[in-house]
Amino acid sequence: MKKLKSNIVNMAVVLTLIAVAAAGLLAWVNNVTSGPIEEINNLAIENGIKSVILGDRDIQFTVEQPVEREGFVFHNVNDLKGNLLGTAVESTDRNGFGGNLKVMVGFDPEGVILGYTVLEHSETPGLGAQADDWFRQKSADAAEQSAAIDVLLGAPGKPGNHNIIGMNPGDEIMMVSKDGGDVDAITASTITSRAFLRAVNAAYKSVFGYTAADGVSGASSQN
Amino acid sequence: MIMNYFKTIINGIVKENPTFVLLLGMCPTLATTTSAVNGLGMGVATMFVLICSNTFISLLKNLIPDGVRIPCYIVVIASFVTILQMVMQAYVPDLYKTLGIFIPLIVVNCIILGRAEAFAAKNNVLASICDGIGIGIGFTVALTLLGFVRELLGNGAVFGHQILPSSMNMLVFVLAPGAFITLGLLMAIVNSVKNRKA
Questions:
Q1: Residue A215: left if φ>0, alpha if ψ -120 to 50, beta else—which one?
Q2: Cα Rg for chain A, rounded, in angstroms?
Q3: What gap in Å lies between CA A23 and CA B115, rounded to an integer?
Q4: Which of the ends of chain B has fewer CB neighbours closer than 10 A, N or C?
């Protein structure tokens, strides 16, 4: 077959036909994959709720219908008698190192952090991307690591605490130690750490109404 | 005849390696190769799109008037990328999460449009498929190698298995400057080996 000439009719017809064929194909693939994609997303949320509220505890539980308010999504988790076990909050900070940082944080009814998980991030692999583990690590197993890096960077730092599980943002200053808070930032990833703690504080604030996060109101809000 | 197809494949891997020789598609090359697995995933994803787009563009080459060939190619390429994106999201969500924005950006990867223009639009279907396989493997090998070196030096791991103590990690290799340094050194090595042969 000879190549079609580039006149206006040929060009319009061919481009339209190709676009229509592509659209049809995509519609079909979308139809096939939308089910599994939704399933995976729901599963991620469900597992997230379970891990941030229950952790390793083995308790029967029910999850209430999620409530959405001011950009936060709340999942109240009850035990079978209907007592509130805790609330899982989806919270997003827009100023991570690589963009949005979306976390889910679980609070017990008093505001103590039961657990967290990072749902979405665009942080640097090996650095900011450690957020998923860093803030639940006991400082001991990370101290060795950060000490080594500190030596490399020529700025020896004291091993401190960066395990936020069990902390209450209402009682403790949930900021990186560089900013005067009680939490050690991920080594060489202060921006990610700040974004993460902002998201956690915002989640706390959205459930319990007030915050100790901004550093100024931290002490005074307890009065 | 079969020799020629084989030559086309080898050509894509060695003589016209997209990363080390043609220096095409540098953005995903530098950005996604923080680990060997990520590099491999990105390479295979690009290879899939490359083979499909080469096939279709070669099939349609006489049907597409020259005046609208670029928009037609882009529509074909974008369709396959979108298919890939949806399929990955549904069946390999972990890899999809890691590669993130770089999957949709395969659309503007100049390797793919470049091969469509330079090869698929001038050759028959079988040869175009071979070119897609060759260039695809070349890209995958280069990305995996780059990821392997960066992961080993930056994280002390090989394909996710920790083999060096974390005190030996050189963070810079996981970051952007490390990508440039590693790429430059690998390119120097590849070229010196090639020149010695010639």
A1: left
A2: 24
A3: 24
A4: C
What's the pLDDT score for residue B147? 92
Please answer yes or no on whether B90 and A40 come within 8 Å at the CB atom: yes
Mean pLDDT, chain B, as a whole number? 88
CB atoms closer than 10 angstroms to residue A101: 27
Q: What is d(CA B139, CA B83) in angstroms, rounded to the nearest whole number?
A: 21
User: pLDDT tens digit string along B33-45?
Assistant: 888 888 898 899 9
The complex's ipTM works out to 0.77
Contacts of the segment A64-73: beta carbons below 8 A, 24+ positions apart: A69/A206, A70/A206, A72/A202, A72/A203, A72/A206
Q: How far is A184 from chain B (nearest CA, A)?
A: 19
Residue B31: partners with Cβ closer than 8 Å, 6 or more residues away? B102, B176, B179
Sequence-distant (6+) residues with CB within 8 A of B10 are: B134
B105 CB within 8 Å of a chain A CB: no
Cβ-Cβ contacts under 8 Å for A38 (sequence gap 6 or more): none
Give the start-to-end residue ranges of the domains of chain B.
2-144
> Count of CB contacts below 8 A, A vs B?
94
Q: Does B124 touch chain A (CB under 8 A)?
A: no
Interval B15-32 mean pLDDT: 86
Structural domain harbouring A96 = 51-220
Number of domains within chain A:
1
Predicted TM-score (pTM) of the model is 0.73
Residue A210 has pLDDT above 80, yes or no: no
> Which residues in chain B touch residue A100, judged by CB atoms under 8 angstroms apart?
none
Residues A117-169: pLDDT tens digits?
Answer: 888 887 776 677 778 888 877 655 545 555 555 555 544 444 457 788 878 88
Distance CA B137, CA A209 (A): 55
Q: List the single residue in B with minimal CA-CA distance to A99.
A: B101
